[in-house]
Write a sequence for this structure.
C-alpha cells in the first residue's frame, strides 16, 4: 500500500513538473517570439536608415552624371545631323566652340569643353591644339567609345595637365561608326558630395569603384586611384564579390569590434557607389533586448521553480492529511490548497511590482519611464484579471460567492465599459457602435459589480474573436408585467467575428474549454470567462442567450430583472455620467489621523514601502517590522492604534505571531485591532482569518479605498478627521501660499500658473526648489557649450530650460528661451551672440528671486551647532534611508537637521546630499557618501 502511495506521489510530481514546464515553456516561447519580432523590426529600421543615406548619395551622383550625359547626347545628336547633312569640318568645329562656351557659361564650369575625332580630324571646342605626336584614335576615350557601339561610355579619371584637377571623360560613337565626340568633366562635384556625407556624420566612408575595380572617388582622397584587386581589406573583399551587379544590395561587416553596414548602389554608368555606415551604436542598442529577454527568462524560470517547490511542499502536506479523510474531501482540499498557494505566490510579487510601479507613476517625470511604467501597470492588471477569473470560479464552485444588490447609476457602468472596450477595439481597428435606449431608467438597484463583470466578459470576448468589422453594444429595457417597480435590463453584444459552429455552442458553458483551440491558439484566455458569466447570471435568475452564424459573427445577450429607484431616464449616457459625478463629488472627504500610530508587519521590504507610501497622505505615524519576532518586540515597546500583519512570513507567520501577541497578557497592544495582510483571496479565506483571531483582512495588491475604509472603521474615532477638498485647499493655502505670495510677479513669475501646472502648492514648491538647486550647474553648462561653439547641444539645453521655466510660471522668460532655441535650430548664430549674455544674466537673477522662498525662519546665529557625533549619526541615518529608498525617513532627518548649524567642513557635503534627496537620487546620495568616506 505504501509503495502504491509512493508511486502515486511520483506520478503526481512528474505530471505537475511537466505542467509547470509546459507553462514555463509557453511563457518563454511568447517572450522569445516577442523578442524576435522586436529584433527584426529594430534591425530593419537600422538597415533602412542606412539605405536612405546610400540612396541619397547615389541619387546626387546620378543627377550630376545625368546632366553631363544629357550634354553629350545633345552634342552627339547635333553633330550626327551635321555629318548627315555633309556639313564642313569648319562648321562642326564652330558648333563645338559655341557649345563649349554655352556649357561653361551656364551648365558646367569645370569642363574642358566638347571635342572629338570627326571626319578624320581632331576638333576641340576649347581651341586646344595637340602636338604632332598626339594620335586621337589611340586615345582611351576614342578606343572605349568605338567598343561602346553607340552607347555613352565613361573613361576612368585622369589628372588634367593644365588645371591639375581629376577629370573624367564621357564619349559617344557617332552615326558614321568612325567619328567620336567627347567631353571632359571635373570630379570635384562628385568628390564634394562624398566628403560632405562623411563630414556631416551621415556615413563613415563613401567611394566609387569602376567596373575594372579602380577607386574613382573616395571621401578619403589618399585612396583615390587604388586598384581593389591589389588590396586585401575586409571592405574591399566585400566589394570585389559585388562588382558588375545591376541591383542595389547591402552587407554587414564587423571590423575591430565595430559594426558596419555596406550599401552597394549601381550608378548610371558601369560604376558602383559604396556607402559605409558605422552602425555600432545602433547594434549595441539592438543587443539590449536580448539581454533583457535573457534576464526576464531567468526570472520566469526562477518564479516557476519557486512556485513548483512551494506547491509540491504544500501538496505533500495535503496528501498526508488526505490519508485520514475520504478521497472526495481530499481532492477538494488539494484543489483549495493549490489555488491558495497560486494566489499567494503570484499576487505577492505582483503586489510589490504594481505597488512600486504606482510610486513611479506618481513621482517620475521622465516620459520614457512613464511609458514603460504604464505598460507594466497594464500587464500587471491583465495578470491579476486572469488570477481573479480563477478565484471567482473557485468561489462559485464552493458556493461562497454572493449577489449583493446596491443602488447604482447605469450611466456610470456604461461609461466604464465603453472606456474599457473602446481602446481595445481601436487597437484592432474595429468599429464600436453604441445603441443605448435613451428612455432606459438609469437609477437602479442590483449587483453593480457583477453586472459590470458580466458585460465586460462579453465585450472582451467579442473583441478577442473579431479581426475586422464592428462590435455593437446594445442596452435597452422592457417592463415587468407583474412588478411595476422593476424592469428587465436588456443587454446584447453583436460582433462580426469568426462565429461559432452549432455543435460548439454548448462548449461555451464548460470550464477551461475553448472553442476551436487550434484555430484560436493565439488568443489569450483561461476558458473560464463564459462559465463565470453563465454562473453569475444563473445566481441572478437570468441566462446567457447566444446566436451565431459560423464565419459571419455572433450575438451574446441577457435580460436581467432590476429594481427601479427613480424613473429618471438615461438620455445621453456621457452627460448623464457627468451629472452623476457632480452629485457624487459634492463632498469628497479625505481621512487624516496625525495622532494615530500604526504598525505594519511584512517580511517583504517593498510591500512595507508600498503600504507606507499609500498611507502618506493620511499623516498617520507609521512604524514597520520585517517579521513576526520584530513585531512582538515593537509591540512591547510602544502602543499602537492598529496593526497590519502579513500572513505568510518566515519564522513566525502572521497567525502564529497573532497568537503570541494574544498570549502575552502584559503586552500594551492586547485587544488592539489586528488586520491580516494576505495574497490569499480564495473562497473561505475570510473565515480562516476571522477564526484565527484577526479582526479583518485585506488582500494584496492593496486598494487605497479599501485601506481608508479599514482605517476609518478601526482607528479610534477621536483620532480620525475627514477633511473635505475645500478645507484641505484652504489649509494648504494658509500654510504654503504665504511662502510664495512674495514671489508672484518677480522676474515675470506667475505663481498661479505655476501652481496650476503642478497641481498643488506643495508640488509647485518642490519643483521650484529643484529649479533653484540646479540653476548654477545648468547655467555653467549652457555657458560652456556657448563658449565652445557647440550650438547643437546649446539648443538642447536651452530647450530644457524653456520647459522648466514654463513649469514654474516664468512664461516671458520661457518665450525668450524659445526664441534662442529657434535661432539654434536655424543656425542663426548672430541672433544667439546678440541675446545670449542678457538671457543668462536674467536666468541667474532667478537665484536671488527664488532663494528667499526657502530661507529658514531662524537665523544661523539662533541655531545650535551640530557636533561631530550628531553629524556622524546624521550621515549614518541618511545612508540607511537611501539604501532602503525610504524617502520619508530621508526627508525626516534632513528636516530635523535644519534646526542645527552645519559645521563648515560638512556644509558643502550636506548641501549636496539635500539636493540629491530632493531629486530622489538615492544612488547619488550613496555615491557621494562613499566618495567622502563618511
Amino acid at each position: 500500500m505504501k509503495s502504491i502511495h509512493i508511486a502515486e506521489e511520483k506520478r503526481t510530481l512528474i505530471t505537475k513538473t511537466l505542467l509547470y514546464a509546459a507553462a514555463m515553456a509557453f511563457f518563454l516561447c511568447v517572450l522569445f517570439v516577442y523578442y524576435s519580432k522586436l529584433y527584426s523590426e529594430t534591425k530593419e529600421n537600422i538597415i533602412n536608415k542606412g539605405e536612405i543615406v546610400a540612396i541619397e548619395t547615389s541619387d546626387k551622383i546620378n543627377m550630376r552624371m545625368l546632366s553631363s550625359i544629357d550634354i553629350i547626347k545633345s552634342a552627339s545628336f547635333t553633330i550626327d545631323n551635321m555629318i548627315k547633312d555633309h556639313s564642313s569640318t569648319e562648321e562642326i568645329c564652330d558648333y563645338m566652340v559655341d557649345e563649349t562656351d554655352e556649357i561653361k557659361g551656364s551648365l558646367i564650369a569645370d569642363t574642358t569643353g566638347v571635342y572629338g575625332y570627326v571626319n578624320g580630324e581632331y576638333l576641340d571646342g576649347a581651341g586646344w591644339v595637340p602636338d604632332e605626336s598626339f594620335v586621337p584614335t589611340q586615345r582611351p576615350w576614342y578606343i572605349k567609345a568605338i567598343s561602346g557601339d553607340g552607347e555613352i561610355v565613361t573613361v576612368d579619371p585622369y589628372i588634367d595637365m593644365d588645371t591639375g584637377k581629376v577629370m573624367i571623360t564621357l564619349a559617344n560613337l557617332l552615326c558614321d561608326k568612325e567619328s567620336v565626340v567627347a567631353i571632359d568633366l571635373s570630379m570635384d562635384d562628385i568628390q564634394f558630395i562624398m566628403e560632405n556625407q562623411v563630414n556631416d556624420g551621415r556615413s563613415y566612408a563613401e567611394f566609387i569603384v569602376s567596373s575594372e575595380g579602380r577607386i574613382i572617388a573616395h571621401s578619403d582622397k589618399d585612396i583615390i586611384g587604388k586598384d581593389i584587386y591589389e588590396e586585401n581589406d575586409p571592405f574591399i573583399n566585400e566589394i570585389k564579390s559585388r562588382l558588375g551587379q545591376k541591383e542595389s544590395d547591402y552587407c554587414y561587416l564587423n571590423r575591430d569590434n565595430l559594426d558596419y553596414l555596406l550599401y552597394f548602389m549601381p550608378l548610371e554608368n558601369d560604376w558602383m557607389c559604396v556607402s559605409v555606415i558605422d552602425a555600432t551604436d545602433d547594434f549595441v542598442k539592438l543587443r539590449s533586448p536580448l539581454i533583457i529577454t535573457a534576464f526576464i527568462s531567468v526570472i520566469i524560470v526562477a518564479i516557476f521553480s519557486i512556485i513548483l517547490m512551494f506547491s509540491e511542499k504544500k501538496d505533500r502536506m495535503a496528501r498526508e492529511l488526505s490519508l485520514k479523510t475520504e478521497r472526495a474531501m481530499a481532492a477538494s482540499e488539494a484543489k483549495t490548497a493549490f489555488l491558495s498557494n497560486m494566489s499567494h505566490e503570484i499576487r505577492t510579487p505582483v503586489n510589490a511590482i504594481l505597488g512600486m510601479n504606482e510610486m513611479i507613476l506618481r513621482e517620475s517625470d521622465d516620459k520614457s519611464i512613464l511609458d514603460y511604467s504604464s505598460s507594466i501597470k497594464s500587464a500587471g492588471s491583465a495578470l491579476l484579471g486572469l488570477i481573479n477569473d480563477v478565484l471567482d470560479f473557485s468561489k462559485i464552485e464552493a458556493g461562497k460567492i454572493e449577489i449583493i444588490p446596491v443602488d447604482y447609476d447605469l450611466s456610470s457602468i456604461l461609461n466604464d465599459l465603453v472606456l474599457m472596450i473602446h481602446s481595445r477595439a481601436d487597437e484592432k481597428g474595429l468599429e464600436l457602435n453604441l445603441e443605448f435606449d435613451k428612455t432606459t431608467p438609469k437609477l437602479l438597484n442590483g449587483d453593480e459589480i457583477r453586472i459590470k463583470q458580466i458585460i465586460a466578459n462579453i465585450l472582451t470576448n467579442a473583441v478577442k474573436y473579431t479581426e475586422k468589422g464592428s462590435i455593437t453594444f446594445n442596452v435597452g429595457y422592457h417592463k415587468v408585467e407583474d412588478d411595476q417597480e422593476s424592469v428587465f435590463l436588456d443587454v446584447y453584444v453583436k460582433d462580426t467575428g469568426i462565429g461559432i459552429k452549432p455543435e460548439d455552442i454548448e462548449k461555451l458553458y464548460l470550464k477551461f474549454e475553448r472553442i476551436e483551440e487550434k484555430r484560436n491558439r493565439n488568443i489569450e484566455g483561461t476558458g473560464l470567462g463564459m462559465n463565470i458569466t453563465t454562473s453569475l447570471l444563473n445566481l441572478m435568475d437570468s441566462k446567457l442567450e447566444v446566436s451565431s452564424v459560423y464565419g459571419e459573427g455572433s450575438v451574446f445577450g441577457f435580460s436581467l430583472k432590476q429594481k427601479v429607484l427613480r424613473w429618471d431616464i438615461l438620455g445621453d449616457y456621457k452627460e448623464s455620467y457627468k451629472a452623476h459625478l457632480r452629485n457624487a463629488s459634492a463632498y469628497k472627504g479625505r481621512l487624516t489621523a496625525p495622532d494615530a500610530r500604526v504598525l505594519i508587519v511584512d517580511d517583504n521590504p517593498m510591500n512595507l514601502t508600498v503600504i507606507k507610501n499609500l498611507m502618506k497622505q493620511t499623516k498617520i505615524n507609521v512604524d514597520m517590522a520585517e517579521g513576526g519576532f520584530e513585531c512582538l518586540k515593537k509591540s512591547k515597546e510602544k502602543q499602537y492604534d492598529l496593526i497590519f500583519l502579513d500572513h505568510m512570513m518566515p519564522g513566525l507567520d502572521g497567525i502564529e505571531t497573532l497568537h503570541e501577541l494574544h498570549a502575552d497578557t502584559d503586552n500594551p497592544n492586547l485587544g488592539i485591532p489586528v488586520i491580516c495582510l494576505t495574497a490569499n483571496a480564495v473562497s473561505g479565506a475570510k473565515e480562516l482569518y476571522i477564526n484565527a483571531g484577526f479582526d479583518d483582512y485585506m488582500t494584496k495588491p492593496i486598494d487605497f479605498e479599501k485601506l481608508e475604509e479599514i482605517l476609518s472603521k478601526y482607528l479610534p474615532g477621536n483620532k480620525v478627521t475627514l477633511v473635505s477638498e475645500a478645507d484641505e485647499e484652504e489649509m494648504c493655502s494658509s500654510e504654503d501660499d504665504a511662502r510664495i505670495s512674495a514671489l508672484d510677479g518677480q522676474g515675470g513669475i506667475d505663481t498661479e500658473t505655476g501652481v496650476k501646472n503642478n497641481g498643488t502648492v506643495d508640488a509647485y514648491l518642490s519643483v521650484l526648489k529643484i529649479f533653484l538647486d540646479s540653476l548654477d550647474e545648468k547655467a555653467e553648462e549652457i555657458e560652456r557649450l556657448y563658449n565652445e561653439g557647440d550650438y547643437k547641444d546649446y539648443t538642447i539645453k536651452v530647450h530644457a530650460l524653456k520647459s522648466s521655466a514654463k513649469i514654474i510660471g516664468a512664461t516671458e522668460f520661457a518665450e525668450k528661451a524659445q526664441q534662442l532655441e529657434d535661432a539654434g535650430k536655424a543656425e542663426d548664430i548672430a541672433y544667439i551672440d546678440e541675446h545670449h549674455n542678457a538671457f543668462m544674466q536674467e536666468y541667474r537673477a532667478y537665484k536671488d528671486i527664488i532663494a528667499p522662498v526657502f530661507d529658514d525662519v531662524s537665523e544661523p546665529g539662533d541655531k545650535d551647532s551640530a557636533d561631530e557625533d550628531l553629524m556622524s549619526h546624521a550621515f549614518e541615518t541618511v545612508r540607511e534611508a537611501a539604501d532602503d529608498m525610504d524617502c520619508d525617513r530621508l526627508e525626516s532627518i534632513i528636516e530635523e537637521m535644519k534646526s542645527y548649524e552645519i559645521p563648515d567642513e560638512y556644509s558643502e557635503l550636506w548641501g549636496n546630499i539635500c539636493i540629491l534627496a530632493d531629486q530622489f537620487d538615492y544612488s547619488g546620495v550613496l555615491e557621494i557618501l562613499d566618495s567622502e568616506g563618511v
